[in-house]
Amino acid sequence: MTRTTANNINMINVNGDESDPYYRYKMPRINTTFINQKKGLTDWTNASIIATAIYKTPEQIKKYMCKKLGTKASISKMGGIIFSGKLDTDTLQDILQTYINKNVMCKKCNSPETVEERCQSCGNKQ
């Protein structure tokens, strides 16, 4: 279930649970555009916004995504991540959710407020 409001169009729960429309932590869905059809580049345009929502940097997310996708990427001037190859948005969203579950959600209290491997909610060190 996607919650849509005037200010937060197409926001989803950070924890990936679509059944709770009142979940506190939200992020936008991944937006992509294809650029340079000859080279086949995928621009994840809102990567910096999502990175902020999950208390990570675009660089941290890029490193994980590149490893999982087996491709190269760079950070754009606008804070997006540009991947080599034409990539499906749903695939990127699934890999991002795996990253969040593995590296963002606190193992003790299930909060996404982990900064530098420490949960800001309960103090647990990841």
UniProtKB/TrEMBL annotation:
One of its GO terms (molecular function) is GDP-dissociation inhibitor activity. GO terms for cellular component: cytosol. Residues 22-125 form the Translation initiation factor IF2/IF5 domain. InterPro entries: IF2/IF5 (IPR045196), Transl_init_fac_IF2/IF5_dom (IPR002735), Transl_init_fac_IF2/IF5_N (IPR016189). One of its GO terms (biological process) is formation of cytoplasmic translation initiation complex. It holds the Pfam family eIF-5_eIF-2B. PANTHER family: EUKARYOTIC TRANSLATION INITIATION FACTOR, EUKARYOTIC TRANSLATION INITIATION FACTOR 5. This is Translation initiation factor IF2/IF5 domain-containing protein. It comes from viral metagenome.
